[in-house]
Amino acid sequence: MVSKNKTGLPAALLLLPLGLLTGVARADYGYNLPEPAATLTQEIFDLHMLTTIVGTIIMVIVTAMIVYALYAFRHDKGAVPDQEFHNSWFGQWAWVLVPVIVLGIDLSIASSASSTLSSVEDRSKADVTVKVIGSQWKWTYEYMDDGIKVVSNLKKLEPTDPLYLRDVDDPLVLPTGQRVRFLLTSSDVLHNWGIAEIVPKKINIPGYINETWTHITKEGTYRGQCYENCGAGHAFMPAVVRAVSPAEYQQWKTERKTQHAQAAAEASSDKVWAKEELMAKGQEVYTKNCLACHQAQGQGIPGVFPALAGGKITNGAGAAADHINIVVKGKTGTAMAAWGPQLNDLDIAAVVTFERNSWGNTAGDVVQPKDIKAAR
Asked: What DSSP letter does each residue of 203-244 carry, written as one string?
């Protein structure tokens, strides 16, 4: 029922101008699906347009018939109900003709839909295979054939920035013109990964592998989101794909492999790191991986994520071993993930040192990579 005020006008009519005035605060309003940039999403888009056109034609015909009947057979023209309609030719055969017409329309759409669904589930050989791991609250991409891993975290931007909550520090890079296979899973709770322009979304399930694919046709940057309500930081999980030419993709792979080799060699060396070096690197690791939960000043989120500033484990004498153990292996029954499989010894040593010597914490100790290696 529509409520009315004292003037008798429906409340909805009075609220309409307010809705129009808030236009500047609304998100991007589109009247159709995003423009596809891959063969698979093009099929989905074409199916969507087919059903939309068929539905619109049916709506126009039915509406026109109703309007015509209301006008031509209105009471003031002396129209009377036809009590023998069911005995007429049309009255008898309509029960057959109408279902046949409806079934024909359904089958014409179903044929295209069946073809599109078969494409979505296609398991043909791929040129590139990427494992997409969702975790609270970031995406990790593992290039299965090249040993490259990309950890994609939310980029910290001001709310006024057009890309606020939509950009990441390290996007997934993919080549155009090649078939890319995605293996989807999760390290904690349900997530849902997809990019509307290039690949349909699918659920990331802990302990289970889902699969989808893409064949990108246009270079560009494409943005998506976790489409599963995965917890308090759900909004902090944008997904960004940068589609580049095959030549640029090869160059990017070479550079990444070189960087990974240098980082691995550095982390596995027996070097004893100075506290200042560990603090500087630890701040980078913390900002990239820990800040979303434990916050910029280590204050945490009351009732959700514990504070590291002033915490027992970050200040207690002799608590370094427990601190290292939680970071490396996680904590069962909480949102604290195991970072051992995700970070190298140097990264974990640096971030533990940083947490024990920041925000007024007074532990004062320094953790070296060899301590992490021993704790694994």
From this structure: EE-BT--EEEEEEB-S-EEEEEE--S--STTGGG-EEEEEEE
- Minimal CA–CA distance to 287: which of 369, 350, 193, 372? 350
Q: Residue 185 in contact with residue 133, Cβ under 8 Å?
A: yes
Regions in the chain scoring below 50 on pLDDT: 1-9, 12, 23-25
Question: What percent helix, strand, coil does the chain show, rounded to 5?
Answer: 45, 20, 40
3-state secondary structure of 201: strand
Q: How far apart are the first and last CA of the chain?
A: 64
Query: Which residues neighbour 284 within 8 Å (Cβ) at sequence distance 6 or greater?
Result: 350
Residue 175 bridge partners (DSSP): 244
Residue type, 220: G
pLDDT per position as a tens digit, 82-92:
888 889 998 89
Instruction: Label the pairing between strands 210-215 and 172-175.
Output: unpaired
pLDDT averaged over the chain? Answer: 87
Q: What is the 3-state secondary structure (H, E, C) of 21-71?
A: HHHHHCCCCCCCCCCCCEHHHHHHHHHHHHHHHHHHHHHHHHHHHHHHHHH
User: From CA 211, how far away is CA 214, in angstroms rounded?
Assistant: 11
